[in-house]
Amino acid sequence: MAARDDKMRFDARGRDLDEAVDILQAGYNGRGFRVAPTEAPFSFRHTIVGDGAMTLRSTMFMGRVDGQAAAGDEHVVHWLLDGRSTIDNGRDEVAGAVGRPILFPEGRDFEFTTEDVNQSLLHLSKSVVDEVAAEQHGIMPGTLRFDHAAPVSSAAMQAWHATVRLIGRAYLGSGEPSDLMRTEMARMAAVALLDTFAHTSSQMPAALLAPRNASLRLAVEYMHASAHLPISAVDIAREAGLTPRGLQQAFSRHLDTTPTAYLREIRLERVHDALRAAAPDATTVADVARHWDFAHLGRFSAAYQQRFGEYPRETLHRG
To answer: What class has domain 206-318?
Structure first.
């Protein structure tokens, strides 16, 4: 097994307010951070250990911070060790409590407040969670939607922290974890995430679960993971180990569609989800459409209206 080249270790601390704000904004897709002093003298510390699949982080920030953040392409869970926090202010607001794991809202910016906070965080790649969800529960990649505001039971909290302690021992112990150990720890975290937080999803079509259709499943999973990229049927066929003609035949026989039409449906669903979650004053239909590789906005708008019964601008302003 080749050594991973995405390993991360970072430790910053001190009393420089501008440095602290820059680090946190960069780490959490943040903007508009506003800091106010509290009774505690200002200091901060931010640590990261992990890799591209998963990182464990800790943040201590003495002061009050208000601003916007976003999870990006990761699922981000945080829990307080001390201090006060709220996330998704003004929408589905959740107040922090010591030890309670809280998931960042998905697919959009959110407002937050922290005050004299000391917290732990786990960042987990969405692709890892999709892979585990597909393998263990037959969930279609890209269709998981977590409810960050749903309550977490005491038993789920205990199980979550037991998993995190095990991961922490592997990552923070005396020896460097092997690449295989890192992979298994990330998968373990994905299982814990699925068990801890309420979510909805779509099941894979039965045809994709049949072992004989493994190549078709690879194609579909690749399409979900890469829907924001300008991929072609040739790219999809190559990823699945099929010829372009074989790919066309597999989609026609088992899913009654074409690869191009299937990819368009994935992208339309992603745009629909993004527009429902977005704030009209923070994004535009054109920005969301371009992100999901719709280059011709007129054709996109017509396809969207046919699929969802309303124009994309109506979804954005209704969401």
So the answer is: mainly alpha
